Amino acid sequence: MDTIKILYIDPGTGGMLLTVLLGIFSVAIFSLRALFLKLRFLSVRDKDAKKNSNKIPIVIHCESKRYWNIFEPILDEFEKKKQKIVYLTGSEDDPVFSKKYEYIAPEYIGEGFKSFSRLNILNASVVFSTTPSLDVFQWKRSKNVNCYIHIMHAAKDITLYRMYGTDHYDAFVLSGDIQVRQIRQLEELRGIKKRDYELCGVPYLDEMKKRVDTAEAVPAHERTVLLAPSWGESGILSRFGSRIIDSLIGTGYKVIVRPHPQSFASEKEMLDKLMAKYNDPSKVEWNKDIDNFDVLMKSDILISDYSGVMFEFAMVFDKPVIYTDTNFDPRPYDADWIEETPWTFEILPDLGLKLDESNVDSLKELIDKCIEDPSFTEGRQKARDDIWVHVGEGARRTAEYIIRKYEETIAKPEPEAVPESAPKKKQKKRLAAKKGV
């Protein structure tokens, strides 16, 4: 009986003890849960720390060696600044490998799927490239890249890329206010957040101009006409063939024909016939130089279609051009979103005269007028003012902008990822279900 009294606990006391025990149990459970979350957080933070320690500061991506002229002056500037750069190229024989750079680390990443596999998992603060269609086709944005910067490979409209060509870049190196206006128009039309940009100029044109300024004067010579067509059905040789060459020979001027390199592969049959027919070098000289500088220097006028060499010839060598109607269809391009003629085509009448079916047989008159009309000299200056700012400073300004964007990324570290608790995850699921997601 006494034993029973000792073990007896009145209901009030028993309830209090049970509450205490439940409290201790709850504290233990929540403490363990907090410890588990803390360990998970530390694990994520350690992974982030490791990721950040392996992050490449600045990557330059060059799709092909044909864009070497775009990047070489910029790389030279980085080398002068002793800024370490990782240079990823899609060409095994890229000229970068023959340069004795100390701060530039070149790497061949292959072509096609192989190169995209590397690019899509890059861990870098800044990636700088001239390749369009980021995050549109195979080249995807890496979640471990802070900023993608685009530079164009020619001084022209940024809307002449295929649709959505620059939508997923974060920043731009530009050469004229026209490009700025076009970017802002596309952002507004597509609901894209405003991106950053810097007006730096055109580094490769700067280098070409240096060569012109320091080259020896061209000796007195007979008037020389350079025919430099693009390749394809709209190219001059495909459209006019023997007719234009006969007309050029009829001028009595020295005639140089420089086919597009792709023509020797894609239009070999047509080109072989023309070269066999016009095989007298005293009448027609066929130029295949890898570097086009010398042939541009000694030519007095250029005849072309939609090749970018027209703008190099006009703005750098300060000489007139004759251009053909390109029959440009804007539908596949960003230009289709903007209700205005692209600057690239709008400026052509200021640079020279148009070649078409009606005047192809009277080329001598066109050539003489283009060379002797002073209004085309004014037009060339207008083109420079429109699309080529900071002449001679492009590489320096570009390198400085890229470094500045890199410094911005390290000044604003990414927020640490805190793992979500189970209740929050359930809450999100319920909210998604409610919204019908």
Report on this model:
The protein is built from 18 helices and 13 strands. It has 437 residues and is of the alpha/beta class. It has two domains: 53-202 and 391-411, Glycogen Phosphorylase B (Rossmann fold, 3-Layer(aba) Sandwich); 217-387, Rossmann fold, CATH 3.40.50. Strands 3-2-1-4-5-6-7 form a seven-stranded parallel sheet, with helices on both faces. Strands 10-9-8-11-12-13 form a six-stranded parallel sheet, sandwiched between helices. Helix 3 (68-80) crosses helix 17. The radius of gyration is 32 Å and the shape is elongated.
Sequence-ordered SSE layout with sheet pairings:
Elements: H1 2-7, H2 11-53, E1 56-62, H3 68-80, E2 85-89, E3 104-108, H4 112-119, E4 124-129, E5 145-151, E6 171-174, H5 177-190, E7 196-199, H6 203-214, E8 224-227, H7 236-240, H8 242-249, E9 254-257, H9 263-266, H10 268-277, E10 285-286, H11 293-298, E11 301-304, H12 309-315, E12 321-324, H13 343-346, H14 348-351, E13 352-355, H15 363-372, H16 375-387, H17 394-411, H18 422-435
Parallel strand pairs: 1-2, 1-4, 2-3, 4-5, 5-6, 6-7, 8-9, 8-11, 9-10, 11-12, 12-13
Helix pairs in contact: 3-17
CATH topology of the largest domain: Rossmann fold
Distance between the termini: 67 Å
The backbone outline, from C-alpha atoms, is elongated
Please summarize the sheet with the most strands: 7 strands, parallel
Percentage of residues in helical conformation: 40-55%
Q: What would CATH call the homologous superfamily of the largest domain?
A: Glycogen Phosphorylase B
State the CATH class of the largest domain: Alpha Beta
Report strand %. 5-15%
Question: Strand arrangement, largest sheet?
Answer: 3-2-1-4-5-6-7
Q: Structural class per helix/strand content?
A: alpha/beta
Number of E-state strands? 13
Computed CA radius of gyration, to the nearest angstrom: 32 Å
Number of domains: 2
Average residue pLDDT = 87
CATH architecture tag of the largest domain: 3-Layer(aba) Sandwich
The stretches of 5 or more residues where confidence is low (pLDDT under 50) are: 41-50, 417-437
Count of separate DSSP helical elements? 18
